[in-house]
Amino acid sequence: MSNSNIPFLDLVTPHVELEQELTTVFLQVIRSASFVGGPMVENFEKAFAAFCETQHAVAVNSGTDALRFALIASGVRSGDVVVTVPNTFIATTEAISQAGALPEFVDIDERTYNMDPVMLRQYLEQKCTKDTSGKLISRRSGRPVTAVVPVHLYGQMADMDAILELADRFGLIVVEDACQAHGAQYFSSKQNRWLKAGSIGRAAAFSFYPGKNLGACGEAGAVTTNDEKLAAQIRMIRDHGQAKKYYHDVEGYNGRLDAIQAGLLHVKLKHLAKWNEQRRERATEYKRLFEANGDTVSTPFEPSWSRAVYHLYVVRTQDREGMMQCLRAACIGTGIHYPIPLHLQKAYDHLGYVPGDFSVCEAVASQIVSLPMFPQLTDEQQARVVQEIQRFVASVAASRPALSDSAKLEMIGEKG
Question: For residue 207, what are the β-bridge partners?
């Protein structure tokens, strides 16, 4: 079996394969001098909205701005509280803060790593109260709670029926963070059909950072929604608040998407369904290999109501550093997404959270490892990854001292 390098992510191969189409986009833009906005952006927006099964998609310059603009346009105001999870990239909470709101957290489901609806219900029922006007108020901060941001992490859908039911009950806006979930699906028992990520909440944010399932050749993002007025509001917000050139209805931001990036994304979008299916096949192969070798790590759990697109393939192990070091020595790339939960980040010291506040998230964060995952990953490469993990696990087991007869009897007694 080859000992060549196995990258964590391969961004070269798909661009080489699509080089002619991608180059054509660049030539079209420089020959038309339509660099910002215009038909290339509009065509991508229509195509991406159709892919997500929404009425509107508004292209912006990053996933962070997509979430920030979606929150603002949805009605989140300065001084509000927006509830999310601590197991996500900081862009989620940056968008909340930059919309003028305060992030507060609920713990995650230990199997899916996404927002736990039980924890959300406990937060809303036990950590909030209602003022005389009926407005929901956080006991922690004394601020009104107006929105919830479930994150579809690693390409896996959050349990949206349960979250939406709570949001309806407590009058909350739901904005999906779908930045890692392009094409993921959720089966809604309430609607008795499969729904695409980005089509379920009032709005949703997507990132097209280069490493995403659908990645630009730079920064890019989009908001999807079925609300025409909200989409129009975001179009103004991204363009300095302009209703038309030099007529500013609101104070906005410079959040527009370059035409070149939109054109490149439009080319790649045609291949996204195939790439997602290849990722699902790679995930199935990982699971088969691990099961055949004794389940030495905890593999991703995919509920019956979710069709994940495996932006990342994340496993859990008791000795993360040792396993990563072993894989590194074998020229196999890995990652950690994410090593420090947001409530324990230095940037959020002022929020006053302490270790132990979100025990599931903290336990998961200390054990997760992201293995190589990309559509062009081969069976041989996956077999090498699993083989090296098996070798590491075996070496750890061999290094443990053998139990004495008395210790074995003691263990048997404890089990009995």
Answer: 221
Q: Which CATH superfamily is domain 273-398 in?
A: Aspartate Aminotransferase, domain 1 (3.90.1150.10)
Residue 393 in tokens: 């696990």
Tens-digit pLDDT profile for the chain (416 aa)? 456 999 999 999 999 999 999 999 999 999 999 999 999 999 999 999 999 999 999 999 999 999 999 999 999 999 999 999 999 999 999 999 999 999 999 999 999 999 999 999 999 999 999 999 999 999 999 999 999 999 999 999 999 999 999 999 999 999 999 999 999 999 999 999 999 999 999 999 999 999 999 999 999 999 999 999 999 999 999 999 999 899 999 999 999 999 999 999 999 999 999 999 999 999 999 999 999 987 789 999 999 999 999 999 999 999 999 999 999 999 999 999 999 999 999 999 999 999 999 999 999 999 999 999 999 999 999 999 999 999 999 988 888 765 455 554 454 444 44
Structural tokens at position 22: 């991608």
Domain residue extents for the chain: 13-268, 273-398
3-state secondary structure of 272: helix
Helix, strand, or coil (residue 361): helix
pTM for the structure as a whole? 0.94
- Local structure of 410: helix, strand or coil: helix
Helix (H/G/I), strand (E/B), else coil: 162:
helix
The candidate with the shortest Cα–Cα distance to 101, out of 75, 120, 121, 136, is 75
* Torsions phi, psi for 206 (to 5 deg): -125, 145
Q: How far apart are CA 173 and CA 160, in angstroms?
A: 13
| CATH number attached to the domain at 13-268 | 3.40.640.10
**How far, rounded to the nearest angstrom, does the alpha carbon of residue 378 sit from its chain's CA centroid?**
24
